[in-house]
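Review form for a predicted model. The reviewer records the input and the model, then writes brief findings.
Reviewer: anonymous (R2)
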Amino acid sequence: MDNYKAQEIIDIDTSGLNDLVDWMVFASGSSARQIKALTDNLVTELKKQNILIIGTEGKDNAKWSLVDLGEVVVHIMRQDVREYYQLEKLWSTTKEQSGSL
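Model under review:
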């Protein structure tokens, strides 16, 4: 996603926190058009590498799209939506709390 100017790309190891997802990747796009383009380009590149894509959501809404790869989920969000939900903060905090038990 770096090649397509995604902003603030962060990956978080969520293994051990749930049975469904081992990694979450978060990235921001500056506009609805960029979020759609980032999602389309990511899906195209993953298909070229024969990586199974379980599904995509929200691309047409273009405030927040999600690409489900099974053990990895990629969230591409407009910056204001990302700040509102603060999912990476939630998962980072959960991982820290889980590790301290």
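Findings: The beta strands are 7-13, 23-29, 55-57, 64-68, 72-78.
Further findings: The two ends are 35 Å apart (CA to CA).
Recommendation: see findings above.
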